[in-house]
Amino acid sequence: MPSISVFGAQWGDEGKGKLIDLLSRDADYVVRYQGGANAGHTVVVEGEKYILHLIPSGILHPSKVNIIGNGVALDPFKFLDEVAGLTQRGIHVDGQNLRVSANAHVIFEHHRRLDQLSERWRGQGRIGTTGRGIGPCYADKAARTGLRVCDLLEPDHCRTRLGAALAEKNAMIEQVHGAEPLDLDAELDRYVAVGQRIAPFVADTGAEVRAAYRAKKRILFEGAQGAMLDIDAGTYPFVTSSNTGATGISAGAAFPPRWIERAIGIAKAYTTRVGEGPFPTELHDEVGARIREQGHEYGSTTGRPRRCGWFDAVAVRFALELSGADGWIVTNLDVLSGFKEISAAVAYKIKGRSVRDWPAATADIGEIEPVWAQHPGWSEDITGVRRFEDLPQNARNYVEWLEREVGAPIVMLSVGPARDQVISRGL
Known about the structure:
4-stranded mixed β-sheet, single chain, 10-stranded mixed β-sheet
């Protein structure tokens, strides 16, 4: 594993945290390159559940170097809370095993405030944002008015930059939304103080990761959200505000794209989505509710119930192709135990025409109709299975069908939440 990208191939919540944690055992560096604290990776270690929002999953393995790259929108307070929470649970965290890019953009209170206020105006067009300020932070980055981690370490410089930002943001908060403006001095004191607290973690992470690659270190790039939430390629505008698949690594980690040597997607054996936006295979009946309960499908960051549906081969095929995936991992296969019949979308019908490719040029993805294929299910509990040949015949048939339909090899199966509940198929 010289350098490998692991990314979600659906709308997030694919079980990336567990698999990234598993693959971290063989890595020297684990790099997070996009997203913010709106992502939540859940890892179960010896019965203990850890939910990581900003810190890479490699932190649960001693001796790994964990990187938060320049493409991450960093909430410094959430970051320190996460460090404190891990430390209290006996996980060693310091500036030696966790680094934060000096060039990562900072989420401020005005970003959170505007995120929440703006969502109220959208009505039926609301995005379903978590309200954590990620979108407004990335918007300021693109507008060249944002502040980076390095700005927090220079108080005079920070006052100038933050003062200019708040002049504009307070006008919006007060005059457009009718809310109380923020005080510059109070905000400056808070963020300069937090800057001093995170200073021991701050580094030129891009230079460090590039040097690690040249030194033949093993590097694992950790995607935060699913590929179908990509700002450019996903179901816009119901997406996140960054590039989520392997395509985001070069910019978000300051790492040359030709040095990314392998890409692995992760997808559930069915499909889920949190928040608003099109979801072609969503089930609004008791079957969808049953998948939710059997899969414990509630957001690790928000606690919101996830929307559930059958597997969507069109979306996963597109996501894997977009990132040039060498293979993919199927998670939550055990959740489908007990279903007499399992369905999956193999194509879409758009205005009477059947298509197998993702309809990126269609303005309203919500108008498409899935073309279904059905497969017999299985009743056996498969959480204890560790070899593919020991799975029930119908479970093996379903996996092999997914592999053929998507057109990429399935290199691993997850059959439960624990680290060891996996079946290797050649990863």
